């Protein structure tokens, strides 16, 4: 992880929220290229709001978001979508749509609305289905799938966008243990072999410790701790961020910090 | 899914031709079949026959097909806008707006032939109000708007019941007594609304994924929403002005379309248009063929308004579709 490279994505003095309620206040964050950043924090700490504001899905109230050093809301939205993919937490399942039809929508930013009037089944779609293990399920209807399979279909759609930056809001929700591990390995593979930058909201601290290069802990819309998993996941931060009394030991497999509640 | 589509592509032209012929050969006035044939080949010498076939029956079937297609496509668009397959053109309140405008003009300026522009204007104005007021929740706002407008219509009819027989055809929907002029007023809308709706298909496929995902894919949701709503309201307004607020076609046609063609709007829009056209025209065939005799009333009513038929057929059809879908 290099700290000298300019950030791909940055928030400067960012305030954001819903309607008049401020959830994230005056926050500054820089995301370096080819890193995996985990946003952690208790419910309502503002991590999803932060992620969705970085993704220009929520409108910011103050400050700015920079994508490749340019204000994100001055770039055309399709231009942003070609560089930055978003996996939202609450996604609507269109009635009757199949996995392939959902994944196809990931090609929208690259191909544009006119080309998308024709059916597409290109390399990007096939790779996305492959990487998420959904190739055998491609023609199944989304409403006939389990919650985890559906979540993987949404991840496949985001991957089909083939962006350099991925923002994932609780990507492991609904997934069983094996698919959680598969997804985290996929994230590492995308960083190592494709040079992707990933920012994700995670609830499982051990997952964050194990797979993220950097952990950002939020509480009440502010960053309380920011650094490597070892720097952030200490008994002290766990108490101040989560009000949890915990023991932090070394993970016997990875050597990273492992949190055990007391 | 594929074989269903192929069957549809093969069967619909046959069904369409059969329906048009049925409309031209059958009817409430007696025209012998050979005379209809002679009219169609331009060799009929009896002007009354030519008048009935070309000026009554032909516009009736054309307006039925056109209005059915517009209602179906408007239904698909409204369902996409609110991301709910149970929405329909009536969800926007435009039918109620059209009826109120028709009653209003009949009360204020009786004896003037203002019904068509009033219906069209009322529907479009309701759509505009919906867009301005309902930005947060179109479904709730549209239904409320429709209820308020319907209440105002009832109030006007209580004050002055003279227009009730005229307005009934807008409230229920009827293809009785359509003239070539109705078709002249309708077809330009078909030419504009249907292709525009189809050109929006790829954007709709993204829009239905929900606001966050759609924004993430670079869709500018605000302008897309405005255009989709405009096209949906325009389609419904033109259909309602021509045939009245026919119930259920805008709900059932997209529903059957989804069963046959799936969720992809690039296919769903044309398939629903065809289904809506056939459905309304078929219902109309039933509508003018049946006669109703009510106990205690001496005259028997032959030829019920098509809106009554679509509601009577549409409701059980929809109920069975929903049941099937839940079981599948």
Automatic annotation (TrEMBL), chain A:
GO terms for molecular function: ATP binding; ATP hydrolysis activity. One of its GO terms (biological process) is iron ion transport. One of its GO terms (cellular component) is plasma membrane. Pfam families: ABC_tran (PF00005). This is Iron complex transport system ATP-binding protein. Keywords: ATP-binding, Cell membrane, Ion transport, Iron, Iron transport, Membrane, Nucleotide-binding, Transport. It is found in: Cell membrane. It is a peripheral membrane protein. Gene3D superfamilies: P-loop containing nucleotide triphosphate hydrolases. InterPro entries: AAA+_ATPase (IPR003593), ABC_transporter-like_ATP-bd (IPR003439), ABC_transporter-like_CS (IPR017871), P-loop_NTPase (IPR027417), Siderophore_ABC-ATPase (IPR051535).
TrEMBL record, chain B:
It comes from the Bacteria. GO terms for molecular function: transmembrane transporter activity. GO terms for cellular component: plasma membrane. The keyword Transmembrane applies. Keywords: Cell membrane, Membrane, Transmembrane, Transmembrane helix, Transport. Gene3D superfamilies: ABC transporter involved in vitamin B12 uptake, BtuC. One of its GO terms (biological process) is siderophore-iron import into cell. It is a multi-pass membrane protein. The keyword Isomerase does not apply. InterPro entries: ABC_BtuC-like (IPR037294), ABC_transptr_permease_BtuC (IPR000522). It is found in: Cell membrane. Belongs to the binding-protein-dependent transport system permease family. FecCD subfamily. This is Iron complex transport system permease protein. It comes from Nocardioides lianchengensis.
């Amino acid at each position: 992880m290099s700290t000298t490279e300019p950030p791909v994505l940055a928030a400067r003095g960012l305030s954001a929220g819903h309607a008049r309620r401020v959830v994230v206040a005056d926050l500054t964050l820089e995301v370096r290229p080819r890193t995996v950043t985990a946003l952690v924090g208790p419910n309502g700490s503002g991590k999803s709001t932060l992620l969705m504001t970085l993704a220009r899905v929520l409108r910011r109230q103050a400050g700015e978001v920079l994508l490749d050093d340019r204000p994100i809301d001055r770039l055309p939205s399709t231009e942003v979508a070609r560089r930055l993919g978003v996996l939202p937490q609450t996604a609507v399942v269109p009635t009757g749509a199949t996995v392939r039809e959902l994944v196809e929508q990931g090609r929208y930013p690259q191909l544009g609305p006119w080309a998308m009037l024709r059916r597409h089944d290109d390399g990007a779609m096939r790779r996305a289905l492959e990487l998420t293990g959904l190739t055998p399920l491609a023609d199944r209807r989304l409403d006939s799938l389990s919650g985890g399979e559906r979540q993987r279909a949404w991840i496949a759609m985001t991957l089909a966008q083939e962006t350099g930056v991925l923002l994932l809001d609780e990507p492991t929700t609904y997934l069983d243990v094996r698919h959680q591990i598969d997804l985290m390995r996929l994230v590492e593979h995308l960083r190592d072999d494709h040079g992707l930058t990933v920012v994700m909201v995670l609830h499982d601290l051990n997952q964050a410790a194990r797979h993220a290069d950097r952990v950002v802990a939020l509480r009440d819309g502010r960053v309380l701790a920011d650094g490597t998993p070892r720097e952030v996941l200490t008994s002290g931060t766990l108490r101040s961020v989560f009000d949890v009394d915990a023991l932090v030991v070394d993970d016997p497999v990875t050597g990273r910090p492992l949190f055990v509640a007391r | 899914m594929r074989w269903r589509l192929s069957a549809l592509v093969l069967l619909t032209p046959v069904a369409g031709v059969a329906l048009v012929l049925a409309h031209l050969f059958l009817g409430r006035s007696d025209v012998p079949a050979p005379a209809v044939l002679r009219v169609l080949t331009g060799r009929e010498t009896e002007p009354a026959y030519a008048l009935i076939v070309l000026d009554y029956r032909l516009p009736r079937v054309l307006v039925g097909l056109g209005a059915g297609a517009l209602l179906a496509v408007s239904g698909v668009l409204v369902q996409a806008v609110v991301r709910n397959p149970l929405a329909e053109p009536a969800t926007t309140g435009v039918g109620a707006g059209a009826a109120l405008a028709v009653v209003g003009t009949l009360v204020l300026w009786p004896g003037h032939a203002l019904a068509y522009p009033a219906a069209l204007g009322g529907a479009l104005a309701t759509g505009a109000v919906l867009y301005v007021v309902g930005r947060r929740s179109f479904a709730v706002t549209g239904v409320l708007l429709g209820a308020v407008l319907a209440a105002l219509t009832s109030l006007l009819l209580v004050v002055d019941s003279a227009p009730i027989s005229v307005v009934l055809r807008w409230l229920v929907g009827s293809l009785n007594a359509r003239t070539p002029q109705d078709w002249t007023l309708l077809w330009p809308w078909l030419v504009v609304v249907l292709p525009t709706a189809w050109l929006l298909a790829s954007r709709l496929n993204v829009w239905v994924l929900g606001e966050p995902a759609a924004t993430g894919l670079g869709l500018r949701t605000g302008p897309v929403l405005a255009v989709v709503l405009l096209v949906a309201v325009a389609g419904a307004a033109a259909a309602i002005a021509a045939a009245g607020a026919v119930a259920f076609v805008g709900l059932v046609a997209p529903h059957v379309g989804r069963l046959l063609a799936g969720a992809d709007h690039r296919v769903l829009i044309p398939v629903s248009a065809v289904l809506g056209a056939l459905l309304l025209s078929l219902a109309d065939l039933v509508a003018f063929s049946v006669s109703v005799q009510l106990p205690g009333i001496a005259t028997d009513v032959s030829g019920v308004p098509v809106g009554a038929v679509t509601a009577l057929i549409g409701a059980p059809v929809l109920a069975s579709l929903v049941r099937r879908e839940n079981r599948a």
